[in-house]
Amino acid sequence: MSAAAEQSRPVIRLDGLRKSFGALEIIRGVELDVQAGERHALIGPNGAGKSTLVGLISGLLRPSGGRVLLNGRRIDGLSPERINRLGLARSFQITRIFPRLSVMENLRLGIMARHGIRFGAFRLADSYEAVARETREMLATIRLGGRADAPAGELTYSEQRALELGLALTTAPEVILLDEPTAGMSRDEADHVVALIRDVTRDRTLLIIEHDMDVVFRLCDRVSVLVYGQIIASGTPEAIRADARVQEAYLGSEVAA
């Protein structure tokens, strides 16, 4: 496959995706491609169905209709663990870490799980050395080397989000889904996390839900707008900024200005 063809390959494809809870239809026939290597933002007003859509992609929810494909393979109906092993990792709006364990211990557990290693008396020393090396590398990647021995629960909020991103990376994913990674942060904290996301998603595919339009327009290559469970527009940040339908449905004067 040529480099150009590889770059245009859809890693995630949503085909007529639907999700209903009883009589209430939340996701209404979504069609969406996320290309290999791109940073793709999903935006929309509260209640649009963004988190539901990410739950469908990551296996936390089962669709009522349609398909989810990862690298051409149908994954709707698979467990989150199985989807993760196929190369897709996600974070959540609410940070999910082990607060009483150190930062290093959090990361080490994730790396050990990927290698299929459990604590035991009869493990080869090389196995532990490889895990220790990868843990040190991950600490440096997420810029928490100086906090390796700190309990995760004592980290600042932005540091906890960085640790959660590190935990997602321990599975060596091809695709990363992030659900509002800068929510509740100051501008300086958000800038730090955006720079980190840009670094760690290099050569990976990113799908991000984010309300901060400054973050979206600085970080992402493409943007899709979800309103009432349907994609109303997809395009470059500049095209979305200028789209009259988007301005009317969601972004309004903030973007027009």
What is Rg? Answer: 19 Å
Q: How far is the N terminus from the C terminus?
A: 43 Å
Provide the helix percentage.
Answer: 25-40%
- Which structural class fits the helix and strand makeup? alpha/beta
GO molecular function, one term: ATP binding
InterPro entries: AAA+_ATPase, ABC_AA/LPS_Transport, ABC_transporter-like_ATP-bd, BCA_ABC_TP_C, P-loop_NTPase
Protein name: ABC transporter ATP-binding protein
Pfam families: ABC_tran, BCA_ABC_TP_C
If you had to describe this structure to a student in words, what would you say it looks like?
- The chain is of the alpha/beta class and 257 residues long.
- It contains eleven helices and ten strands.
- It has two domains: 1-87 and 173-257, P-loop containing nucleotide triphosphate hydrolases (Rossmann fold); 97-172, no CATH class.
- It has helices at 3-7, 50-58, 80-85, 103-115, 125-141, 157-169, 187-200, 213-219, 237-242, 244-251, 253-256; strands at residues 10-21, 24-35, 39-43, 65-70, 73-74, 88-90, 175-179, 205-209, 222-227, 230-235.
- The strands form two sheets. The protein has a six-stranded mixed β-sheet, with helices on both faces. Strands 2-1-4-5 form a four-stranded antiparallel β-sheet, covered by helices on one side.
- Helix 4 crosses helix 5 and helix 6 packs parallel to helix 7 (187-200).
- The longest helix has 17 residues, at 125-141.
- The radius of gyration is 19 Å and the shape is globular.
- It starts with a helix and ends with a helix.
- Residues 12-253 form the ABC transporter domain.
- It comes from Marinibaculum pumilum.
